[in-house]
């Protein structure tokens, strides 16, 4: 039998966790020229090598139109470049430039130092359990209420 009060508290703690994480990311981006949102685009492209705007939107779970604005910012800053998409003439592929690749590598490296610091005292089993619980809750909520 689950303790619904504790589960409820866990779910609602996700909001301050994400707000704190976003604030930490924002502080870490000072001087980089990146915003939290352009950083997110670069991170997806770092992982996937190249992607269309709809692909990025799906990964970030946000609307395509909003991602297009974010991608436009990265293009204007010379962090990304458009490439022809052999599978779709109108949906170009977006890829990191060397400048964008170097920048996101530096940002992620700094963030990993912070993650190591805030993770002190946590053991691997607790982290695995937390990850499994959060993943299951997210999937269950998406199944129950759908996702956009």
UniProtKB/TrEMBL annotation:
On the tree of life, the source organism's domain of life is Bacteria
According to its UniProt entry, the protein's GO biological process terms are: response to stress
Name of one Pfam family that matches: MarR_2
InterPro entries per the UniProt record, alphabetical = HTH_MarR-typ, MarR/SlyA-like, WH-like_DNA-bd_sf, WH_DNA-bd_sf
Q: Which residues form a coiled coil?
A: none
GO MF: DNA-binding transcription factor activity
The protein depicted here goes by the name: MarR family protein
Organism listed in the record = Octadecabacter temperatus
């Amino acid at each position: 039998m689950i303790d619904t009060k504790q589960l409820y508290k866990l779910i609602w703690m996700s909001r301050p966790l994400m707000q704190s994480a976003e604030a930490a990311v924002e502080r870490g981006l000072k001087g980089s020229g990146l915003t939290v949102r352009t950083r997110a685009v670069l991170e997806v492209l770092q992982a996937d090598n190249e992607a269309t705007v709809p692909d990025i939107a799906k990964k970030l779970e946000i609307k395509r139109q909003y991602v297009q604005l974010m991608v436009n910012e990265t293009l204007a800053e010379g962090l990304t470049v458009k490439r022809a998409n052999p599978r779709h003439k109108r949906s170009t592929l977006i890829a990191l430039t060397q400048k964008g690749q170097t920048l996101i590598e530096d940002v992620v490296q700094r963030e990993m130092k912070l993650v190591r610091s805030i993770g002190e005292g946590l053991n691997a089993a607790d982290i695995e359990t937390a990850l499994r619980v959060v993943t299951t809750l997210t999937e269950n909520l998406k199944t129950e209420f759908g996702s956009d």
